[in-house]
Amino acid sequence: MSEIRIDLILIIYIIICILMILFNTAYLLYLRYKDYLFKGKKEKIRQIVREQVLLVSKNSKIDENKQSYLFRRLTKVKVLKAFHDAIKEEVKINEKNTFRYLKLCKPLFEYVLIEFDTKENTKKAYLAFLISEFRLCDDASYDFIVSVMISYTMNKSVYVRQNALHALYTSNNSEAILTAMLRMQELNIKHNNKLISDGLLLFQGDRAKLASLLWKEFDRFDINIRIAIINFIKVSTLDYAEPFLALLKNKYTHKEIKLAIIRYFGKIYYASAGEYLVSLMKQENLEWEYKAIGASALAKYKSKEVIDVLKDALKSNNWYIRYNASESLVSLDVEYMELVDIYNGADRYAREILEYKIETARLKKKANQGE
Amino acid sequence: MFVEVVRTILISIGAFYSLYLLVYATFLVISVTVGASELYKNQQMSRLHNEISHEYYFPVSIIVPGYNEEVTICDTVHSLLNLDYKLYEIIVVDDGSKDDTSKVLIEEFKMTKLRRKIKKSIRCQQEEFVYESYAYKVPVVLIRKKNGGKADALNMGINASRYPYFICMDADSMLQSDALERIVRPVLTDENLIACGGLVRIANGVILENGKVKKYGMPKKMVTAMQVLEYERSFLASRILFDMFNGSMIISGAFGLFKKDIVIAVGGYDNGTMGEDMELVVRLHVFCRKNNIPYTIKYETEAVCWSQAPESMRDLRKQRRRWHLGLFQSLSKHKQMLFSRKFGAVSFISYMYFLIFELLSPYIEIFGILSVIAMFLLGMVTTKVALTYMVISLLFGAVITLSAFFSRIHTQNIRLTKEDVWKAIWACIYENVGFRIILAFTRMTSFIGYKKKKLQWGKIKRVKLNQ
Asked: What is the ipTM of this complex?
């Protein structure tokens, strides 16, 4: 009895599998058929975009009838994709006027945003992506698209958030970025800090202004965002040396923030910071991470004292401190005679790591010359 | 009396086998259906730019352990230099090869010997020499060490790596040009991610140009074609479904991304295991669950690595013996996971799946078939019932494999020739008629003589890639 039932169940499974294969085949054919049917509509959209861009390039008014045609249809993802494709083609031919035309399409996208309010996140992410691609966010004090993008940054989908942030970065609206980041902070939305710090670098507007806005609200952010802000300021090579040094010296500052600031001073020269880093390197009971990153940062500060401190670091028990110190000594181009005590000294580890770093530097130089 | 006992035993085995088939079939249908719909969803998301596309990710070390790989190693490194990624390093670890693996690399990439000492965060054999080259877009490092097995070579690579994440990959594999970018993306969407597996596909029959598939076709040899189907089925069956509840218990040694600090914290790859790739992932589960560390182990279906499959039955059987032993070692070493509420679905679904449908399946299948034959000979079942049973089981096996295969093909927008479609259908039938039984027998007998070979590299005959 049980055998018969199992056989029956297996037969049902076989039917399910065959149906899956049939579904795949039928769906594939259906997609092709739909593509075939859509071809005409796609061509029409392409034509409309082309003609509208042409009108913009002649400084004429765009055709309102054609815009209303788009109005009625653009809420469908397929049509949006066709519009996107058409814009991509136009950008290649006439970038400036295509973006001028897109600015005129703002009301259209405002309407699409309202229509998409109840749609699933996958579609919202795509719309945010298009708004970013089409650079539709403005720096006006109130802009509907910007306000929707800010609300998107609080969405639970990482893709909606990321694409909305991208859309904001493409504007020069630093206030909007600050608002979005503060809202995300208030709602405790975790967004990867690398995505935030690298994303901030895409900002098209005044970076110094954005940095100053973020710095004003610095204490309201959590550690990860604060690190992202420091990294943004570091890569933008903005001068925040004085406040950063104060933060570094403050004993209540979080360790990770202090390490990020030390890295900042490894990129931005600030004499007082160099002196402070030397004093850090000399402290005996300091956690090894400070010394390891400090040793790296000192590559920017050539002086007798720095070289001595780095030579001492070469003898550290910690591999990372030795490694970074040797790298900094090589990068500072220290004379052989100044290092002779290391070469002839009893510390084999210090000697080996220094030799290795010198050989590597030579090899890199040779490779660069070859290029 | 004796006959009665035999009859009772046979009926019990038959009933158990039927139940096993039923549960396995149900599992396969559910997983293939879920897997196919998940693939479709991913495809839609990617079409609508629901992905993290980023200019700069984070630096990654690629570790390529090798033993007697002089035929393929240069192609592998060249393919790695073609990746669409900005910041990474390539570390080749020559595990005391007897051929010219190191020599061909040094000559091909004009490498220079350096006096580099490797910091040993994880125990491994001593290095013999280190060569480096900075003449390419990323540094290429060669470390030659005393022979110690694949796990030992990987541990050396981890020790030598400079970056916080590392990729392990086989020396006979090639990454698709976007594979590295794809496999690191999940780290940006999930900060708890500690390991991520890529999709390993069979390179035989595929032509890659600059890291992109130029031509896809079923391999010429039936043994390899059957493996293609097997890979696709198991990918849908145990990878995507398990991924949905953080239950992946294996990341193939051919292509996986790991967070270095946590791998060092668990002691790196286990030298005493043949399936070091699976053992590491299982150990990561145990470590994180025991220490209440939030973690994610997942699969990135778009990160593709093309790997050579054995082309002869001899090599294939060798490979499967190793895999089966590795599976046994991993499961027995971490038997505390069995029926443990602490491990949740990883214990009750993933572990049970690998125990029953992977480790014990060859025994159950062989004994099941033998019992059906014995029952037939003893007149306990009629010819009609026996034949129906067999035909339906085989048909089910073939059809489920085909549906998994076509779902993959469909969601990858790959076009197959008519010839390839027929080949796939034939391969499915062959696989279920003979291939499965031969492999089941191979796995069943894998314990014979394993102590002698337990730390050796599992070698198959290598051919030049991309031919």
From this structure: 0.83
